[in-house]
Amino acid sequence: MRLIYLSPVPWASFSQRPHHFVHWYHEQTGEPVLWIDPYPTRLPSLNDFRRKPPSAGPQHIAVPPWLRLCQPPALPIEPIPGAALVLKPLWRKTFRRVAQFCAEGPSMICVAKPSELALQLLARLPDSPAVYDAMDDFPAFYQGLSRRSMARRQAQLIRRVPHLLVSSTALRDRHQAVAKRVELALNACDLQHLAPVEQLDLGPKQQVLGYVGTMGHWFDWDLVIALARANPANPVRLIGPVFTPPPGALPANIELIPERAHAEAIAAMATFSVGLIPFKLNQLTASVDPIKYYEYRALGLPVISTRFGEMALRGEAPGVWLVDEGTDLRQTALQALACPSDRTTIGQFRQDNRWADRFAATQVLAPT
């Protein structure tokens, strides 16, 4: 069965859960995929105009012969009541492409982000099997009218599709009461962009406490500053775009490094001694299973994290230190830095946390 995939990220971005899902689906079925790039589903904010283009430059991702790419035009008006009347005429070409794709064979729909376009396509293809891969608490990313609009469309989507995948235990618990069928498919690690286990440097390093990723409103600057002050001899290296600036002057041992291309960021991550996941505890992070956890551990790095989302369930996991208010950050860092890594354990972690295995364990391909 062919696949129509409505993605939350563009195809021309670094490989994420959506990319791995469609690759897995094609490998299992041999069928083509129609990938539909996302469009704005919230109203613009002032930060959108202040935000600089990423210094890492655009990603150039080849389109495989079995994948067809569709980029629907849209205006950033979806949350406004009645916006569908304006948007539907813009999507005529998209509707035609989907109809032509489905005319060539039976098709399944996977929605990976709620949207008006997703609801429109589900209404036009009522007999097609459908699944919603809820990989985030999407309404929590938005504010005001945009948040209410996204919450309403997500509720409509969950009522419409018979099958829900979720990326965290919190999302499973939240949707179980209203969804027809819910399956947990945690995130995993992208082995393609990791150095082979045999090439990893597991010897003494510079004792760097490091973080790679966006520093947005969920990033706990206060914790990072406290960690740096408690460990003044250790560099605290933060790599990525800063969308929410620190609350004041930073300790001298905190290094801010601009965003890098994904492969370069992974290479920089391998030079850390400890990986940090310093996220605030709020509605947004409560449903997150961070990819960073898998990347850090697949490189043999111990992890210091706050007790959010899926990380809250990993207090007993090897190589993980969870911090709370009042935690001794010096002792925590010393324990993490002293945590040994060996190639056998790293190899087993990689084997146990592969994307293909996550999806294969679900009933996505089961007969309906």
Q: How is this structure best described in words?
A:
Keywords: Transferase. The protein folds into two domains: 2-188 and 354-361, Rossmann fold, CATH 3.40.50.2000; 197-352, Glycogen Phosphorylase B (Rossmann fold, 3-Layer(aba) Sandwich). The protein has helices at 17-29, 46-50, 83-90, 92-103, 116-124, 144-160, 169-175, 221-230, 262-269, 291-298, 329-337, 343-352, 355-360; strands at residues 2-6, 33-36, 67-70, 107-111, 130-134, 163-166, 182-184, 209-212, 236-239, 254-257, 274-277, 303-306, 320-323. The protein is built from 13 helices and 13 strands. The longest helix has 17 residues, at 144-160. A seven-stranded parallel β-sheet has the order 3-2-1-4-5-6-7. Strands 10-9-8-11-12-13 form a six-stranded parallel β-sheet, with helices on both faces. Helix 5 (116-124) packs parallel to helix 6 (144-160). The mean pLDDT is 94.
